[in-house]
Amino acid sequence: MRMIIISKAPSCDPSMRQEDLTVRKDEQFPDLADTFVAHRSQLCQAAARILGSRDRAEDVVQDAYLKVMEAKTVFSVKEPAAYVFRMVRNLAIDHYRRSTLESNVFAVEEAGQGVPSPAGTPEAISIGRQELNLVARALGELPERTRRVFELYRMGGHTQREIAKMLGVSPTLVNFMIRDALNHCRSALESAS
Amino acid sequence: MTDIECGDAAWNQAVDWLMREHEESLDDAAREALIDWLASPAHRKAYEQARTLWLVTGLVPTSDEQSDPPSDDD
Lengths: 193, 74
What we know:
heterodimer; A: mainly alpha; Arc Repressor Mutant, subunit A; 2 domains; 64% helix; B: mainly alpha; 3 helices; globular
């Protein structure tokens, strides 16, 4: 069996072909980092569609790779491809939103310190394995229905109204459960720090 | 004790904004309103905290995706 160890983060350089990579088969599920590398150029395209810029897409994919390296120490994921695509999408959306606010809000603060941040390049949020563990555990502690609602909202991309219809409950209750989930995760992080 | 102290209005409003951004792309008027709201350092802090937490929750695989959920017992 061929195994390729990639020690550096992937670039969006298309000269590295997908066929050059072999997903390791000695594990129950493909390794997240290997999956990431194997889909590198499609991940860049997905990020570029959200951000409208190849350069910014590359920054986001690099950031996502670092986060995948943390996540793989914490989670074993059944469908790593779906997971890494969602991760890149989440980060691209975060960067995009942040960039729409950056020049108006956050740059003012940074300029005050004499370190203006160029608009459109939001700084990456550092997320460690401890935070991932705490939040995963906090979500696991939620009542099953609350967790299901949160997953439908956060990962499933459904609106509160849609979820209310799907589950036959009021939108107010759905809103309450999403807040409850976030508040519980926040408490878990705060009690550890 | 509840998960969250009463009167944590900035956090609750930050979560409101987060959910709104998650469900729709803000139009110009809404973005202006968010920018005004972020003029307060307390609001900015709450928004950043909520944004980070939102990202972390997005990195946790769903219960269906996890083949090895974190255990409480170890």
